[in-house]
């Protein structure tokens, strides 16, 4: 059975349904996972406690973390994040970080686990951006390394936007290898170099995308051997996503998730799946797209 970390407060209630970031997707995805039997009474969600100040400060500057915790960030920092900074927004971000830490520990024991949130890859060391307050994968990898649970990690980021924050956090860490497969002409305009960037042309469809992804993973695994892999399964490469510029079908999203998770597990590496971005206005469709990662993970051991 697949272990899935989830918390009801992943859905911050102060973020309205008309916000560009569809916060309700977390609750709807959780509902769908129950409906499809991926979690159940005999295999319930695993609930995290919020990540501590020290855990989050392992990946972010103390000034930024203190300002976020105390709700005292200046207006420029808040605008860059894209949310008004309320207590529930900070709490959901701390919970998301904790979820990715916990899923990492579980994956090291079970081979695979998922966080039903996460993938906040635009948060850099000194601040948040792009609806990302704290970089959960950055916090998780830093924490697990500090605890001695892992020595080396790889981040495979398939969100439509380049993983600039993750690249920034690990820019000087030779024990972490970052891979970003994204639309080159999409935001952020100023990208931070990953260890491996595959910038794809706008409008790319399923077959060409999957071919590029295969080349990216071939190169990544030839260059680096991790103890643990984090997979950012953002669904904003979907053809109907309002902030994406790629054109993957629903079947293409599912094929991508199956391919990445199967490839990682065949290499013998533990893997954590996190949800990443997705900005479709149809929340039911969005939850269905996000559920593909969990379905794929439930079939891979």
Automatic annotation (TrEMBL):
Residues 19-282 form the Histone deacetylase domain. Keywords: Hydrolase. It holds the Pfam family Hist_deacetyl. The keyword Cytoplasm does not apply. InterPro entries: HDAC_classIV, HDACs, His_deacetylse_dom, His_deacetylse_dom_sf, Ureohydrolase_dom_sf. Transmembrane segments: none annotated. PANTHER family: HISTONE DEACETYLASE 12 (PTHR10625:SF19), HISTONE DEACETYLASE HDAC1-RELATED (PTHR10625). This is Histone deacetylase. It comes from Ponticaulis profundi.
